[in-house]
Amino acid sequence: MDSVTGLNRNCGRRKRERASRRDLHNDDCRACHEGRTTPVLGFSALQLSPDRDPNAPHAQFHDAPGYEDYYYDLPPHRPPSFNEEDVSDKPAWLQALPLMNNNQIAQVETRRRQQLQMIRPVDDAIQDIFSLLIDQGRLDNTFVFFMGDNGYFWGEHRIPMEKNRVYEEAQRVPFAVRFPPLAPVEEPRVEHRLVANIDIAPTIYQVAGMPIPAHVDGRSLIPLLRGSSRWRSALLFEGRPNPAFQAIRTDRFVYVENTNQRSELYTLGRDPYQLENVADDPGYAELVKELSARLAEF
Length: 298
Hints:
The chain has helices at about 35-45, 90-95, 100-135, 170, 200-205, 220-225, 285-295; strands at about 20-25, 30-35, 145, 175-180, 235-240, 245-250, 255-260, 265. By secondary structure, the protein is α+β, with helices and mostly antiparallel strands.
């Protein structure tokens, strides 16, 4: 796998969206650029920089320069969990959230449109990086990871704009890999087993021919790319909002233990929008006991 020359790791690390007068080429700060983090880091990547850490579409939200006219015809986002009416089965922190009013809903829609605008420069930067790799003849010998940060809520479960919660909207993210030596691009496939960002580092170690340190979390994705049937059966979720939570996610269930508040259990096949907490249902008592024990083993 080809490597890419390094550069100043302090580049583009400012909070929020501004990357004003930051050096994105060298360590002596002679070359500075005015602009948003995403397009500037896209430019940096085209200079063979490994620093791909665009901040979009995080707060502060705004109309993306050059894309201000995009997505004004976006249809409203109204999944079954939007502004959830009955939250009596949820923990106390969520029960305390009022139904969103019209002004809050309008704000959610505006921020959603702005987030989608803000992600367009990321798309453009990725296309430019791929074009450069093609021009250099490196694309098919480069391991590409494409992954999003955990997602914002857009009004699901009455949560107007937040991300550090256990529900699927915040926990599930886009995750794609491209490496033709192990996964032919002519035969793309979707892998439904559980993977996470903790699997990236072990994968890089293995592809580089290096031993995976014992303290590293996660598993190399190489067995999945090679078609192995052996893989994990669950993932640990943790968060430190108020209240903090720990959860175990299998392919069928999410079981959540909230600090000093009621637990939650969702059957994802029957209830993908997590509308019905069945943790207190006697019919699921044995499953709750089992998942709680597995959670304690993490």
